[in-house]
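Handout, section B. The chain below has 191 residues.
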Amino acid sequence: HLLRAEKAVVQQGIDSRAARWHDGQGNPVDALEHALRAADWAYATDLLERGAFEQIFFHDGERSVGDLSAYLDAAPESTSPGLRHRLVSGQAAVACMLDRHDRARELMDDLEALGRSDSRSSLVDVARLTLAARSGDRDGVDAAVAALVSADPGGVFEAFALSELGAMLVWQMADGLAVDALERALALAMQ
């Protein structure tokens, strides 16, 4: 048993170093894969915030990456409140993109319990938008769309926000508005 435990620690160290190497080479998704294997939740969160999230869910056609479920369930005891907030924000966004909306709602409740429910970050706003759209909360959708558009004008988060808004408007049979939002999202995606 001791040998097996030692081997796991060695492998974790290798994955941790590989994560940093891939990050240094400009490969945040490959870095994330190794950070997940190393159970380095803080570094995985940092990678998601710095571009891995967009690459996985918006550019690579939802490329399969390691065990994102392990990330969703990570609850490190010894994290600072700031890191805990960032981790929960990342977890909520990932949960939404993996269609685990119940888990995302739990995580958003955790953010509220941390006293950070008013936080502004693109990952939090992705979760807010996704959950509001799923529940038909037009005011919540509008607020999250506005936040994402102002945070990332002309970027992938704006395109995502407009496509989610367009999908909700189609569902609500507001065809003219839906067409406008979806055409704007498509134009951004084609850039």
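Note. The chain has a mean pLDDT of 82. Compare this with the example in section A.
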